[in-house]
Amino acid sequence: AGGGFQSEDSRPVWQVYEQEARLGSGAFGTVYRARERDSDREVALKQIFKSGEHAVQDDAVQEFMRCAQVAHPHVLRVYAFFNAADAVYIACELAANGELLDFLASHRELAGESSIAGIAAQVLAALVFLHGQGMVHHDVKPQNILVTDRQLAGNDRVPCVVLGDFGTARLCQRGALRQHGQGQSEIRGTPEYCGPEVFEGRSGDRTDVYAMGVTLFELLAG
């Protein structure tokens, strides 16, 4: 995964993509389903605001571009990146089956312990790869685990998932803790899934491990 991303695209985003539907929105921006005009490929197009309380900063843009170029079967593919005047736009793989919790709610037969273990193994493989590349995801949670329509080789009882939403991803030396400031406004990620070090103004690969532990507990305990 991750293939197709080269560098920032200088063209106007809506010249490249045609908006089809609004998939959701939050404090950081809006996600659209869009279609690439040249290839007819459907994508998820994420708009991240440059103004307001959760505005993306220029240094974060540069780090995201670095993180977006990773290629792994269980990391969401990023196809293109647009740095417009009002927002950053990220075109990425459209995970056909949506967020993991929604998928499991409608496919209860795939919500057993063995299936959850298989899902966790995929996400952990993605994290091991990212940490080996000197990257921290910073927002591991069920909402950022997406279900594709791809099949795992030899196993149709475990859905194929990818780790998505690299809007808070940062570079960090493996095993180290990076300073990022303290206070609610400085927290990268979702507080309910953050390890103690995050609230002390530091983070590192252990931050993702803690968040994955909380995620796994939530998936198993409901």
UniProtKB/TrEMBL annotation:
Active site per the UniProt annotation: D139
One term of GO molecular function: ATP binding
Keyword Nucleotide-binding (UniProt): yes
Positions bound to ATP: K46, E93, L94, A95, D165
Keywords of the record: ATP-binding, Kinase, Nucleotide-binding, Serine/threonine-protein kinase, Transferase
Residue location of crosslink Glycyl lysine isopeptide (Lys-Gly) (interchain with G-Cter in SUMO2): K141
SUPFAM superfamilies: Protein kinase-like (PK-like)
Source domain of life: Eukaryota
Boundaries of every Protein kinase domain copy: 17-222
PANTHER family referenced in this protein's UniProt entry, alphabetically: SERINE/THREONINE-PROTEIN KINASE IAL-RELATED (PTHR24350)
Family, as annotated: Belongs to the protein kinase superfamily.
Protein name: Protein kinase domain-containing protein
Organism lineage string: Eukaryota, Sar, Alveolata, Dinophyceae, Gonyaulacales
